[in-house]
Amino acid sequence: MPIGKTITLAHGAGGRASDELIREIILPALGGDPRSCLPDSVVLSNLGERLAFTTDSYTVSPLFFPGGNIGKLAVYGTVNDLAMSGAEPLLISLGLILEEGLEIDLLRRIIEEIGEATKETKIRVVTGDTKVVGRGAVDKIFVNTSGIGALPAFIGRIAPNQARPGDVALVSGALGDHGIAVMAAREKLSFTSNIKSDCAPLHTLVATLLRAAPHTRCLRDPTRGGAAATLNEIARASRVGIELDENAIPVHREVMGLAELLGLDPLFLANEGKLIAVVPEEEAEAALAALREHHLGFESNIIGKVTSDHPASVVIKTTMRTHRVVEYPAGELLPRIC
Amino acid sequence: MKFISEFREGALGSGLVRRIERLSRPIRIMEVCGGHTHVICRYGIRDLLPPDIQLIHGPGCPVCVIPQHEIEKAIELSTRPGILLCCFGDVMRVPTRRGTLFSLARGRGSVKMVYSPLEAIEMAAALPDKEIVFFAIGFETTAPSTALALKRASSQGLANFKVLSTHFIIPPALRVLVKDSSSRIGAFIAPGHVTTIIGPDAYCFLADEYNRPVVVTGFEPLDLLQAIMLILQQAAEGKPRVENQYTRAVRVQGNRRALEAMDEVFEIRPAIWRGLGLIPGTGLGIAPAFAPWDAEKAWDLSQVEPAPEPPGCLCGDVLKGVSQPKDCSLFAVSCTPDSPVGPCMVSPEGACAAHYRYRGA
Lengths: 338, 361
Ligand code: SF4
Prior knowledge:
The complex is a heterodimer. Chain A has helices spanning 16-29, 70-83, 104-121, 177-186, 203-212, 226-238, 253-262, 281-293; strands at residues 51-58, 64-65, 68-69, 88-99, 124-133, 141-150, 168-171, 218-220, 241-245, 250-251, 276-279, 301-307, 314-317, 323-326. Chain A is of the alpha+beta class. Chain B is of the alpha/beta class. Chain B is built from 16 helices and twelve strands. A six-stranded mixed beta sheet of chain B has the order 5-4-6-7-12-11, with helices on both faces. In chain B, strands 3-2-8-9-10 form a five-stranded parallel beta sheet. In chain B, helix 2 runs parallel beside helix 16. The A-B interface holds A 174, 187-190, 246-253, 256, 263, 266, 299, 301, 310, 315, 318-325, 327, 330-331, 334-338 and B 1-5, 7-10, 13-14, 34, 38, 41-45, 47-48, 62-63, 88-90, 92-93, 102, 113, 115-116, 118-119, 137-139, 141-142, 221, 337-338, 347-349, 356-361.
């Protein structure tokens, strides 16, 4: 029976159509043997002393955007979540929720992207699941991935509540590219833009950073809500203040321009390939040098410091040398026009 | 690769601040445009000024001045069968008696956010079975693109495209404000973008008839500081006039082509502004020659009645510069950008939203 051009409810019913979908589309794209299968569960052993475990679900519109796509996001996102606790990514699961009517070719392209991304990050897909739901129940495709990673022995506790007054905050590059790229693609903005999503796996960048700054206190990737959300979370969890220097915050010129035009603040825009690190002051210079040497961190900078003043809030020293609060973002970003 | 600093230079700023301090005198300066309000709050410009100089916010936030019932007309249209309403993003969140356009977009209304009226035109061409209504809002800055869209609809004979116009024009509203004794405006920071279209001479009456300094101003924090300094200089010399600080964008004659397109497509009519009430000569209705594309001619919307302001909301006074956002008892209590009570908390250019988002440390 040919697989057809679009996903039908039968592809999720667990019978022959499901089996064909997995063997003809999913396994080959993941680089697996079509005669094998993805088991419902997998037995793990000897992964290491300390493990990190994470899960995340992915939905984005459009599915393909400049610089990335939902497949890459689903792998890199989970790799990055593992990396943010200092773990080296090992295994990943793949859950797909497909909308009836989804084109098989589009699905194949997405799974190929997932396959590429797992190869690039050397993470292995070990279990998976596919469901099909009726039209309108999801927007084309939702992807869920869970990941397991191992922590190297020398790494201490890296968590949002570990920042202390005197520490230094760094960012691994320019902020806001992903947010603007996806918004421009989704809304088919009439002004052309060359901005690409920064979508990238950060585990090697983290490994480089941790070698240079082994006492790193917090690591977060500023995705939804942007750097403003991440920094506020750290300030709240650690009950410290964070003071940013607006002059030091890297932003690409084009992102700055479009953000201004749309009334958006780069600090609030999503990133998919940046990290924010809080490190003890004495390791800050080494951390910065290490980040800048890595191809994903060449635009890194020290953006602020942790203080005992104004605990649980983030304050920015503006380029006009005035101070204001950086709000904890909430709600959806709606661009302004007038 | 750029840092934000390259767009805004602190050192130049301190030079301007010192000159402002030397010229300082008690004065209330209104920045008319919401874009300026946003920059003033974002960069804490007030913290740099001597206490004698008060900056007061004006009515130039397009989303803020649209009366509730105009938005309710758009909501009404969006719920009628066969109509797809297209509008800009920030108007979608303004609360009305019938919810917001945003809630409708997710519910029973058909609403689509667009970035330009030309997108709505393209949609009309692509969806001949639907009536595409563009909810046209904004001042002289957005009116020209609505005019172009209407001209295109007419030349392409797009019968299924309509415009619901609530465009406003600025200068006559400034006359109302300068005469209003409760606003006590001593000088104006005139809007940069609006003036690129209408030219600085449109404000001459403020200097000639009312002796108020006017400076047409750009949107960088340094532009604002320089404008304040120029206003103080004019005040010291006792020679109020219209000065153009924003020479990199504003030409004396404005934008002829835009003005011609507006002339052709719109006709001036009285308009109700939120907070300011009915002001003759400030609304842009659609001219008879373009009546086939006028949503108000195509559908009877007379049943949508004027709405009272939300109880407790001071937006009306905030838009006249009589009150500051913090004077409102709902500010940051029950009214926040996530659940706005009035329109001034919605757009990033609204005074309440700017004050909320950019609180001083
Ligand atoms: S704080 Fe809210 S309710 Fe009060 S004036 Fe502003 S928008 Fe209106």
